[in-house]
From TrEMBL:
Annotated organism of origin: Psilocybe cubensis (Psychedelic mushroom)
Signal peptide segment: none
Xref: InterPro entries: AlphaKG_dependent_hydroxylases, GBBH-like_N, GBBH-like_N_sf, TauD-like_sf, TauD/TfdA-like, Trimethyllysine_dOase
Compositionally biased spans, kind Basic and acidic residues: 463-475
EC number: 1.14.11.8
Domain Gamma-butyrobetaine hydroxylase-like N-terminal: 74-156
Reaction(s) catalysed (UniProt annotation): N(6),N(6),N(6)-trimethyl-L-lysine + 2-oxoglutarate + O2 = (3S)-3-hydroxy-N(6),N(6),N(6)-trimethyl-L-lysine + succinate + CO2
Protein's recorded name: trimethyllysine dioxygenase
All copies of domain TauD/TfdA-like, residue ranges: 184-427
Region of interest (Disordered), ranges: 445-475
Cofactor(s) named in the record: Fe(2+); L-ascorbate
């Protein structure tokens, strides 16, 4: 909560008694030191350790700010500066601001697509006026008919790039785990997931996001029910194995999954440029035999051990491309050519994908002679991390319990078995999964407060229907 205006003014008065007379900031000076000339609600929020953008507020409501409770703005020929407090400023290039105008003429309010022609922006574009308003930064652009853009304050802070501010790292929501996860594995009931209110579906996918996998209990032991379960997330991705699988160990496909052999911890589709995102399994029956326990390993947890204990090996796993292939069926031949590293990161260094299937690995012809031995030592250490008793979670699946795994994070395998074991399941694309989760977050993440879900009521819409805000944080 912001302090009262009176309290903010008392703080400002004390400051003004001690401060020297300072001019407006010079934008090309990266160390701007100046003080607001008006009390700033944003500065108060910063001083108390809070942010003007939170998950509970899409953007500051104009009623929350008064004329004298606004960030400070300044401009030069190339940039506009916004002062959040006495030490924190964000700078935005004129061309960037003009490109991100989201008035109805520049950004379609329904389709959420850009209408303005970015390539018509003059290189020397300079605003006519820049004003701090309760609704946000108001910029008046020169044109035949002067164009006015308004950018919500919280949207500017969330998208500040010079410098980046308050960037919430998705990785902080990940929960790394080892074998002790067996004490309380993430689970949701089938009836909850299939309920039309979507609460159970949101819980299920949130489990997957945090842990990389989740069980669903009480699933009818039929292919029909299992397929309906998969379709709750998104459309099923068809591959060379078909659309929805229903298979036994009969080598109907040229893959060791269709045998009774043990399978080490691996991710699927290492031979695809875009490996499937989610993989759903459901054991329908296992008769006249034993074995076939399911193995799950958190690849992010294993990678964290590698990074801490063997940083040089971790670097090699992040840099050396590993080629892979799927060639067991005469009618298909998948190969990645040079391949991809075992560990993939964002530009900021965050681990986002694990690709590992030693059985599908092709010839390592791209290795430099001086790193051959180092690379083999790196995968040996990697394998030790994956096969450590601390990393392996073994579970004997039973008919009625399905499991979905994030194929970009969690490796799976199984022990050898005897008898007839019937399994069904499906692949779902990573983009479909992330889209569904994002929509459910809009619906439920702030349901307890009724605030800031990135959706707004629109006239003419039936009760419960909302239109996505043009300032939604993901747009």
């Amino acid at each position: 909560m912001f302090q009262s205006r009176a309290a903010a003014r008392r703080v400002q008065t004390l400051r003004s008694c001690k401060r020297p007379s300072l001019s407006r900031p010079v934008l090309n000076n990266r160390e701007i030191t100046t003080y607001p000339r008006r009390s700033s609600a944003v500065a108060t929020a910063h001083a108390s350790g809070s942010s003007i953008y939170t998950d509970d507020a899409q953007h500051l409501h104009p009623d929350d700010l008064h004329t004298d409770d606004l960030p400070i703005t300044s401009q030069d020929a190339n940039q506009v500066a916004v002062g959040w407090d006495t030490r924190t400023w964000s700078r935005f290039h004129n061309i960037w601001l003009r490109d991100h105008c989201r008035c109805p003429k520049c950004f379609h309010p329904i389709t959420k697509q850009r209408l303005f022609n970015t390539f018509e922006i003059p290189k020397d574009l300079t605003p006519l006026h820049v004003d701090a308003k309760p609704g946000g930064l108001q910029v008046t652009w020169p044109s035949k008919e002067p164009h006015v853009s308004v950018y919500p304050w919280s949207w500017l802070q969330l998208n500040s790039y010079d410098p980046p501010l308050n960037r919430k790292q998705e990785s902080n929501e990940k929960i790394l785990w080892g074998s002790k996860i067996q004490q309380s594995p993430p689970t949701v009931a089938y009836e909850e997931v299939m309920n039309d209110n979507n609460h159970g579906l949101y819980k299920w996918l949130t489990n997957v996001h945090k842990f990389g996998f989740s069980f669903v209990s009480g699933v009818p032991a039929t292919t029909e029910a299992t397929e309906e379960l998969a379709l709750r997330i998104g459309f099923i991705r068809e591959t060379q194995y078909g659309k929805f699988w229903d298979f036994t160990s009969d080598l109907a496909k040229g893959d060791t999954a269709y045998t009774t052999l043990a399978l080490g911890a691996h991710t699927d589709n290492t031979y695809f440029t875009d490996p499937c995102g989610l993989q759903l399994f459901h054991l329908l029956s296992h008769t006249h035999g034993t074995g076939g326990a399911t193995l799950l390993v958190d690849g992010f947890y294993a990678a964290s051990l590698m990074r801490e204990l063997h940083p040089s090996a971790y670097r090699l796993l992040s840099e050396v491309p590993v080629p892979a292939h799927a060639a067991g069926d005469a009618g298909s031949l998948y190969a990645t050519g040079e391949g991809y590293p075992v560990l993939t990161h964002t530009g900021q260094g965050e681990l986002v994908q694990v690709r590992w299937n030693n059985d599908d690995r092709s010839v390592m012809r791209g290795l430099s002679a001086d790193v051959v031995e180092e690379w083999y030592e790196a995968i040996r250490l990697w394998n030790k991390c994956l096969t450590s008793p601390d990393s392996e979670y073994w579970v004997q699946l039973q008919p009625g319990t399905a499991v979905v795994v994030d194929n970009h994070r969690v490796l799976h395998g199984r022990s050898a078995f005897t008898g007839k074991r019937r399994m069904c399941g499906a692949y779902i694309g990573v983009d479909e999964y992330k889209s569904k989760l994002a929509v459910l977050r809009e619906q439920f993440s702030n349901s307890s407060t009724g605030q800031g879900d990135g959706l707004e009521e629109q006239g003419g819409k039936s009760s419960g229907e909302k239109e996505r805000d043009v300032w939604h944080p993901l747009l």
